[in-house]
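Researcher: Please translate sequence to structure tokens.
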Amino acid sequence: MQITTSTAVTHAYMRHQPLVALESTVIAHGLPYPQNVAVARAMEALVREHGAVPATIGVVAGVATVGLDDATLERFAQASDVRKLARRDIPLAIADSAYGATTVSATMALAHAAGIEVFATGGIGGVHRDARTSFDISADLTELAKTPVIVVCAGVKSILDLPATLEYLETVGVPVYGFGTNEFPAFYTAQSGLSVNCAADVATIARAWRAHRAIGGGGMIIAVPPPPEFALDPIEIEQHILQALAQAEA
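Model: Translation complete:
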């Protein structure tokens, strides 16, 4: 499989600079234009401000691309023909010479193929609340089980079954650490009532990652709670979710 890298990403490889993968689904399918492209550029700017090189990932005219240029970001933000890609969707997008925005699982797969070990995103997928009957479990979890990439996120999307998701991750051997916290964040809120092991600082995470890789593990989750000034009330969030689910099932 051909992987194309942007000039900035290529230079980062040559200079041994740290790279951070970013997904593209939030651009193409997560937010309306022009907020989506503004968020994409803001995410890349934050990565640069902290001394790393951003690598937003997508499939561009059938080519897996690590590091989307500005024109491609604009196309992803505005075009209606950009597919939403999980890992399973990558082969056909390449075969069709299509454009595709990568979800967590696809971004992890392509980041690993490109030699990138750190991926930052908002929230991952998980076990759905009706999984007992629907068997709806996100491909993000199986990707985490097998693909050695650190996923830095605000936890699992709040609409999902968080306890079941953590149980699944435990079963498949994915370490889940709270960054500076013992409580697993719930995407919009820092509070879920669910305990995880705390990683106090970046150095601890680096040591844990080396140990994890030494025993042949897959991915790792570093769960970062939203800052207090942006975090929402967990009770209010759950009320809205339950109301929306009831309306959907009515």
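Researcher: Any highlights?
Model: The two ends are 46 Å apart (CA to CA).
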